[in-house]
């Protein structure tokens, strides 16, 4: 039965166009994958090359179609080679295919317009296609990924067989007549059938490579995330939001809490009593329901052995297997909180010591009253306040009569005790908070009375005298 070469050629053109569309759709879905766009464009050029065959019978366009057909074939395979290089991460040198395409075009022009030879044109096209097919097959074998190895080998074998067939086709003019383009010879039929089968299979092969590459990347991402999840020193857990059941924990969680994965998986959060305070757990859940994430939530937890740890929790709500889950990271800050407490104690102690030092610098060591320096500073402050507001200001100066004789007779210990008793009596007798009693020096004392006029000061002075008199300190 005779084979209609024109119908076969039409089928090949349509198939190449469909393949270009399929690769183009795949490219639009995965633009980040190197090589897909060039494979799609290369297949489109092959389809256009097959379409030009129908223009050969046109008197005006026929010669251009004869020259354009091999150029589009070589350009299409050159783009496929360039796409393979990019997909495999090889150096992106397109100079070779471009020069080959130019050479095929020049030879096509020469053997069409200057020296019309169908045999030479067949050799020109076939050897270029064979060369590029061998180059694509060798490139696929030059760098093979573990997960894509078998697909690359099959695809490389397909291009190598294609190269071998086109080599035989290129040598055919040396052994017999060339024949017409649409002549139903065995070689022409085999050429169209081989090209149809090869292009169809390499299109699916390229699609399979992309799928395997995506799967490989997904598996690598999953392995990386699993590695990060398992090796993180922080406590990582995945909890089903609906019922609070732990679905996964990492090694850090087990070390931090003392609960093994077997003891945790399938258990509810509240059953483990991990949270020390229920209110903290409910507060975190409320934040997650409101915004879907929470950062730096501080809470106390109870380890399996009953000890307490302080953790800083960051959590986020994600969809896993169609259900809402909480992925949480708990960073142990127990040691840091203990260090902070020690530091706060030290700060408080330093403040106490500073206040004591400041107070001591203004206090008389014997009587515990303000000293002379403090008296001068207070009087200076009150005096300027008196000048601004014009309110009364009084100062009482007093000393203990015959104190030297007392000190000489009873001794310095008794003298010091006498000064302390007098100072305490003066401090008690003053009464008002703003009034200041100071030891002015030796047995001399001074009292600053803000907002007190002369009669008021005289009253206070008499009260002070009576307070000392009431002590009834004997004087021999």
Structural topology:
Layout lengths: L4 H25 L6 H17 L9 H27 L6 H20 L3 H25 L6 H23 L14 H46 L3 E6 L4 E5 L1 H7 L3 H4 L4 H4 L5 H14 L1 E10 L5 E13 L2 E10 L1 H28 L10 H18 L3 E7 L3 H8 L1 H19 L5 E6 L2 E7 L3 H16 L7
Antiparallel strand pairs: 1-2, 1-5, 3-4, 4-5, 6-8, 7-8
What report would you give on this structure?
With 476 residues, this protein is of the alpha+beta class. It is 63% helix and 13% strand. The protein contains 16 helices and eight strands. The protein has helices spanning 5-29, 36-52, 62-88, 95-114, 118-142, 149-171, 186-231, 251-257, 261-264, 269-272, 278-291, 334-361, 372-389, 403-410, 412-430, 454-469; strands at 235-240, 245-249, 293-302, 308-320, 323-332, 393-399, 436-441, 444-450. The strands form two sheets. It has a five-stranded antiparallel β-sheet, with helices on both faces. It has a three-stranded antiparallel β-sheet with strand order 6-8-7, with helices on both faces. Strand 4 (308-320) and strand 5 (323-332) form a beta hairpin.
In terms of per-residue confidence, which ranges show pLDDT below 50 for 5 or more consecutive residues?
A: none
Taking the alpha carbons of the first and last residues, their distance comes to 156 Å
| Radius of gyration, in angstroms, nearest whole number | 50 Å
Major beta sheet summary: 5 strands, antiparallel
Mean pLDDT: 84
**Helix and strand composition category:** alpha+beta
Element-by-element helix/strand order: HHHHHHHEEHHHHEEEHHEHHEEH
DSSP E strands, number:
8
> What is the overall number of helices?
16
Helix proportion range: 55-70%
């Amino acid at each position: 039965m005779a084979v209609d070469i024109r119908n076969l050629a039409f089928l090949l053109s349509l198939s190449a166009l469909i393949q270009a569309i399929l690769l183009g759709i795949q490219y639009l879905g995965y633009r980040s994958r190197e090589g897909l766009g060039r494979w799609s464009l290369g297949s489109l050029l092959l389809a256009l090359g097959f379409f030009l065959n129908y223009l050969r019978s046109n008197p005006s366009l026929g010669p251009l179609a004869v020259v354009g057909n091999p150029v589009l074939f070589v350009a299409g395979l050159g783009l496929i080679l360039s796409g393979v290089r990019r997909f495999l991460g090889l150096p992106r040198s397109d100079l070779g295919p471009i020069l080959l395409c130019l050479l095929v075009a020049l030879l096509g022009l020469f053997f069409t317009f200057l020296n019309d030879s169908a045999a030479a044109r067949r050799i020109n096209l076939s050897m270029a296609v064979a060369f590029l097919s061998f180059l694509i097959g060798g490139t696929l074998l030059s760098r093979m990924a573990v997960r894509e190895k078998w697909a690359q080998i099959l695809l490389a074998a397909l291009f190598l067989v294609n190269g071998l067939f086109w080599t035989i086709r290129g040598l055919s003019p040396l052994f017999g007549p060339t024949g017409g383009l649409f002549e139903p010879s065995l070689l022409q039929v085999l050429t169209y059938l081989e090209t149809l089968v090869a292009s169809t299979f390499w299109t699916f092969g390229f699609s399979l490579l992309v799928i395997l590459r995506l799967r490989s990347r997904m598996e690598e991402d999953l392995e990386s995330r699993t590695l990060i999840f398992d090796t993180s020193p922080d406590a990582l857990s995945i909890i089903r939001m609906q019922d609070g059941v732990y679905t996964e924990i990492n090694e850090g969680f087990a070390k931090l809490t003392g609960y093994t994965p077997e003891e945790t998986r399938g258990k509810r959060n509240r059953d483990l009593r991990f949270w020390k305070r229920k209110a903290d757990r409910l507060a975190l859940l409320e934040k997650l329901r409101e915004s879907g994430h929470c950062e730096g939530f501080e809470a106390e937890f109870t380890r399996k052995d009953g000890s307490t740890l302080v953790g800083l929790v960051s959590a986020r709500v994600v969809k896993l297997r169609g259900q809402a889950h909480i992925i949480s990271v708990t960073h142990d800050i127990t040691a840091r909180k203990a260090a902070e407490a020690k530091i706060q104690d030290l700060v408080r102690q330093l403040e106490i010591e500073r206040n004591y030092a400041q107070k001591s610098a203004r206090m008389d060591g014997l009587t515990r009253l303000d000293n002379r320096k403090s008296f001068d500073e207070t009087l200076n402050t009150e005096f300027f306040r008196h000048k601004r507001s014009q309110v009364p200001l009084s100062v009482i100066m007093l000393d203990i009569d015959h104190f030297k004789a007392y000190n000489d007779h009873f001794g310095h210990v008794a003298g010091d005790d006498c000064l302390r008793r007098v100072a305490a009596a003066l401090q008690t007798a003053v009464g008002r908070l703003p009034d200041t009693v100071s030891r002015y020096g030796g047995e001399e004392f001074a009292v600053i009375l803000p907002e007190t006029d002369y009669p008021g000061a005289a009253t206070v002075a008499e009260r002070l005298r009576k307070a000392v008199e009431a002590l009834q300190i004997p004087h021999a």
